Batch of 3 targets.
Target 1
Amino acid sequence: MCDEKVNRCECVHKTFEQLKAYADFDTAQAATGCAAECEGCTPYIKLMFASGETEFDIEDPRLSLYE
Ligand code: FES
């Protein structure tokens, strides 16, 4: 079991805590470029805006809603 947590966009070096300051996914993406490079963080950031949480299991089952 991997207990590594996902809590940032690695490509633009922004934590989900920082990205949460924006109004929504589209605003955060436009302002920072997050979720626009490898896009690996995209479902996590969408889940972050939906749940208010800023740290996720790498295989959080809720991610399937945002893929
Ligand atoms: S980790 Fe966010 S775009 Fe690559």
Target 2
Amino acid sequence: MAKPRILINLFHPNMNRSRGNIILSEAVRDLTGVTFRDVYAEYPDFNITVQHEQQLLLENDLIVTQHPFYWYSCPSLLKEWEDKVLEQGFAYPPGVGDKLNGKHWLSVITTGGPQNAYRSGGFNNFTISELLRPFQQTATLCGMKWLPPVVVHSVLPEGIEGFKNISNDDIQQHARAYRALLDGYVME
Ligand SMILES: Cc1cc2nc3c(=O)[nH]c(=O)nc-3n(C[C@H](O)[C@H](O)[C@H](O)COP(=O)(O)O)c2cc1C
């Protein structure tokens, strides 16, 4: 079976202060068949080139959105990207609206909060799956297959006291699993 063409769109407004997304990105950006993009670096003024973004979507099978979890959602450029790029007639009808049908969407997320905070009755009250439902339903409306997200919890800046903070070695372990997932991915 042919290897899928993979687009990784990284949305992080402050990569020079990142711990998690830096390690995750370095693990996957050189993989064969992967097009890796730092979308904030491309559009520091949020002026997204819609046609270019749509062309990249057309050219790939597995679309990865990688980002830190911000306010139980995403950094604002990803929302802007959705609003501009997933337009009617391209991503959904009326009009043709079928350009993304059959593609797969994988969310790859780092959170500051620990895993046990994301549950009913926990500090954040809801599971990550529940909080990601707007993304899941966006993928579904576009005819895409929503994959179980990759989530790395407890990613805080180094030197923060009093909170669970994952080590760089443990982030590397998640990064290796992320690489293996993409490397062995088959479209079903
Ligand atoms: C504006 C902002 C909002 C955040 N919101 C959340 C949140 O809702 N839940 C959470 O667990 N962490 C939250 N965090 C923590 C980030 O998710 C965490 O710092 C990031 O995932 C670490 O990844 P990085 O090392 O690549 O920056 C927030 C951080 C910022 C700056």
Target 3
Amino acid sequence: MDKILLLVFVGMVIGCYYDVEEDFQVNQECNVDNISYASDVLEIVSSRCYKCHAAALNLGNVTLEGYDKIKIYVNNGKLLGAVKRESGFSPMPQNESMLPSCDILTIESWVNAGAPNN
Ligand code: HEC
């Protein structure tokens, strides 16, 4: 009898845990209003891309460091193509899993707003 109660209890705890987890995922905010290059985009690109695409490294002959440089890849569509892993583009970050969806949305919103240097 005690064992059954224990199982029920464990079941409830696990059930709660998954509920909380689900709510967390649903409620996790991704605010893409008024994206700023300096405070939003740069944070993602410098932490996830500069290890290969800083000016001093220039891996694959691609430099993303500096507004004027990254703007080249905004304009030719390769920045979005690479992070969204569209066909015809090299999937980035190379050899790593896809960026979190909120990071991709952040970059995409910035590009769609005309990629301002703000
Ligand atoms: C581990 C190193 C590495 C990381 C990290 C990395 N890249 Fe790259 N990237 C490369 C190399 C090497 C190339 C050139 C070869 C190729 O296109 O696959 C490249 C090419 C590109 C290109 C040109 C793609 C094309 O289709 O011509 C873009 C745009 C790009 N990277 C963006 C990014 C962005 C944005 C990030 C961060 C989210 C990133 N990369 C992270 C190594 C990396």
